[in-house]
Amino acid sequence: METTAPAYITPTQATTDVEMPKLISGSQALMRCLVAEGVETIFGYPGGAIMPVYDALYDFQDRINHILVRHEQGAAHAAEGYARITGRAGVCLVTSGPGATNLVTGIADALIDSTPMVCLVGQVGKKLLGTDAFQETDVIGVTMPISKWNYQITDADEVPAIIAKAFYIAQSGRPGPVVIDMTKNAQLELMTKPFVYEKCKSIISYRPRIVPKQEQIAAAAALINKAKRPYLFVGHGVSIANAEAELMEFVDKTGIPVAVTLLGQSAFPTDHPLYVGWLGMHGNYGTNVLTDQCDVVIAIGMRFDDRVTGDTTKYIKQAKVIHIDVDPSEIDKIIKADAPVVGDAKAALEALLPLVHANDHTVWRNEFRKYDAIEYETITAPELAPTTEKIKMAEVISMLSDKTNGEAILVSDVGQHQMMAARYYKFRKPHSVVTSGGLGTMGFALPAAFGAKVGAPDREVVAIIGDGCFQMTLQELGTIVQNKLPVKAIILNNNFLGMVRQWQQLFHDRRYSFVELQNPDFITIARGFGMDGHTCNHREELNASLDTLLASDKPYLLEVIVEKEENVFPMVPAGASVADIRLS
Amino acid sequence: MTTYTICIFTENTIGLLNRITIIFTRRRINIESLTVSETERKGISRFTIVIKHDSREFVEKLVRQIRKIVEVLAVFGYLNEDIVYNEIALFKIETPLGGKPLDIETVNKEHKAWVKYWGLDYVVIEKTGSEEEIFAFFEYVKPYGILEFVRSGRIAVGKTEQGLVEYLPEAEWEYYL
Questions:
Q1: Higher pLDDT, A15 or A520
Q2: B61-84: b or e for each residue (b if 16 or more CB lie within 10 Å)?
Q3: Any catalytic annotation for residue A135?
Q4: How does DSSP classify residue A189?
Q5: CA–CA distances in Å: residue A77 to residues A446, A473, A554
Q6: Of the candidates B11, B15, B73, which has its C-beta nearest A140's C-beta?
Q7: Which position among A72, A189, A330, A476 bears the catalytic label?
Q8: CB–CB of A259/A19 below 8 Å?
Q9: Can you say whether the dihedral through the CA atoms of A577, A578, A579, A580 is positive or negative?
Q10: Is pLDDT above 90 for B163?
Q11: pLDDT at A1 over 60
């Protein structure tokens, strides 16, 4: 994957700055490191133990855009949104103690969804470490299990090498979050040697394999060439590796049907004739059921999450499995691979391409169609042309998809609206899906959406948010307005924690235990923040409402009142086999 | 339950012990013994961790998770027959005046254990061997009264002809000695 900074910033430039004093402080060094890494935006929140860095930042405002969030969790999710869209590490800057612990959810989210992130965290002075000083938390201890790497800088001289390492680790191999805990003395003190920044290019103990071994590629190609009913599973790894073009070429040559995971969406266009749908718990009917019928699975950059596989003892038992992943620990973790390929999705597809035979699997591909017809008739058609008084979530997403031509960046939160967004948005452009997949973090979407907007200012960014999720991070409306980020947010309001309610209905005998919400007036809240918005309560207004939302050149909030007790189907009940997928 | 010996080669940095052990904690694996020391190469530490588990597949996955830690250079999971291994144990045994005298010949010849220190009314015996040998000796000295007993935990080297250097071809570490 692309991990280098933009070409116009070179380490030499950073080191030959004429105004640079001979010896600089750790904080100033940190700023120069960020510039050298090509960091353009930081999401942060100041506080006591990070004051020296903020003081240094004051002189770098022309080079680094700092976005002041309203809560550190917002900074973390915004950095994730930024990273998912740009492929470059999102950077957070926060203070010690509560500032750092408020990042924790976002760090965990970034780890499980392989999102590059560098979190710069203030810490009390070295001499105070371990004394329960004001706002001291063991951030290294807290973030150890949820970060790809972490390190405590206690000396200004360490800054350049450690920051270089941080960006290298965050952005290479399987990307992930890195936490750098910087004691206050290291921020304040002068370095004892002149500042020199060299980008990290390798670490002796960390050597991610990008180009796969040729024998693994040959074994995989042999299986693919013999397959009668091959089936391709596309995951997030394809997007991370920027392998969309290679995937397309591979599919066009081999004629293999393609299914995507939740985060694999947008890596392959939904209007391609070989696209067969979305895998997993709320995925498409035929897409799931026919996993039982294929003879070879080619899984690329996906990790067989339990929400994809259901009961693994009954999952793709009849098929040979080719598992392509850059992280060797994913191989055989859940599903035994007959032909493992350790490497980056792009490099693996490039290597496979000359070895696989041109083929046509139209008959096999068409088997999906009869299931599609059943799904369309029992679920999709009634959801898109409902007879209910209230609007259904599906109508909103489907209309949005049409109006944006499937080319917007769709940021969804967690719950029923997330599943509906994944079901009904017809992605046609790569790098368009931003959602919390592995961790399922409610409150993710609003901050991630403005992070994505910062990363892709020229693209339309629409956030789909539930009424429950919105109330977890709604203070970030302030950040959106202050920074004039024209994010479009849609609240699908059913006055329920809908997904939990659905489970309580289906599996707990309708014992609705604490899932109904007494909601505030969201539009008044938005206006209080200085953001425009309106509520749509009637089907006949939906079209015009979405037009207003999309036409706005400012941030805009649209609240759509939807059916209160709607369920997401198809559904593979937790722990059941994918063959037991329910249509109602 | 099968005994597995996991040898981990790492850079010698602060917090690495914690980073490794949380991988065991998260998967609810009890560590039977753990030793750490610097290797023949400066700056490289060697962890020897002994666990018991009934699934080889599980241990293989565990090894891959440990390998993922940035500072970890290499990880090997061994069965007992793959390695030469030993532990050291110290026994502090009562020898009160008028008590049953310790048969030093049996201690030395049968158990290959040696008295390291004579106190006024106790001795400290050093016993090197496998866990089984140490426990056999434990049973032997038990009747005399054990005041203190401590084991070092297993240390092990692989039986293959390869040295660390073969696994770390790009390493440019200076030899320790």
A1: A520
A2: bbbbbbbbbbbbbbbbbbeeeebe
A3: yes
A4: S
A5: 8, 10, 21
A6: B15
A7: A72
A8: no
A9: positive
A10: no
A11: no
**Residue in chain A nearest B59 by alpha carbon:** A333
The 3-state secondary structure of chain B, one letter per residue: CEEEEEEEEEECCCCHHHHHHHHHHHCCCCEEEEEEEECCECCEEEEEEEEEECCHHHHHHHHHHHHCCCCEEEEEEEEHHHEEEEEEEEEEEECCCCCCCCCHHHHHHHCCEEEEEECCCEEEEEEEECHHHHHHHHHHHHHHCEEEEEECCCEEEECCCCCHHHHCCCCCCCECC
Q: Do A205 and B64 touch (CB under 8 A)?
A: no
Active site residue A395: no
Q: Is A460 part of the annotated catalytic residue set?
A: no
* Nearest chain A residue to B70, by CA: A206
Residue B70 · residue B176 · CB < 8 Å: no
B11·A145 Cβ contact <8 A: no
Q: Which of residues 8-27 of B touch A (CB under 8 A)?
A: 10-11, 14-15, 18-19, 22, 26
* pLDDT exceeds 80 at position A385: yes
In this prediction, residues A400-424 reach a mean pLDDT of 98
What is the DSSP secondary structure assignment for residue B109, as one 8-state letter? I
Residue with token string 């502090």: B92
Q: What is the pTM of this model?
A: 0.93
- Best probe of the B interface among A167, A204, A334, A336, by most B CBs < 10 A, is A204
Whether A325 and A201 have beta carbons less than 8 Å apart is answered as: no
Answer yes or no: are the C-beta atoms of B113 and B137 closer than 8 Å: yes
Structure tokens at A15: 């080191």
With an 8 Å Cβ cutoff, is B73 touching chain A? yes
Residues in chain B: 177
Does A184 participate in catalysis according to the annotation? yes
The residue with tokens 């002068």 is A190
Q: Are A244 and A267 in contact (CB under 8 A)?
A: yes
Q: Is A134 among the catalytic positions? A: yes
Which of A362, A322, A339, A350 lies closest to A249 in space, CA to CA? A350
What span, in angstroms and rounded, lies between the C-alpha atoms of A247 and A348?
10
Which one is catalytic: A60, A135, A333, A429?
A: A135
Residue A19's pLDDT is what? 56
Contact state of A329 with B67 under an 8 Å Cβ cutoff: yes
Q: Which amino acid is at A369?
A: R
CB nearest to B170's CB, from A141, A204, A328: A204
Report chain A residues whose CB lies below 8 A from the CB of B18.
Answer: 141, 144
Give the pLDDT band (50/70/90) at residue B100: confident
Instruction: Say whether pLDDT at A3 is over 60.
Output: no
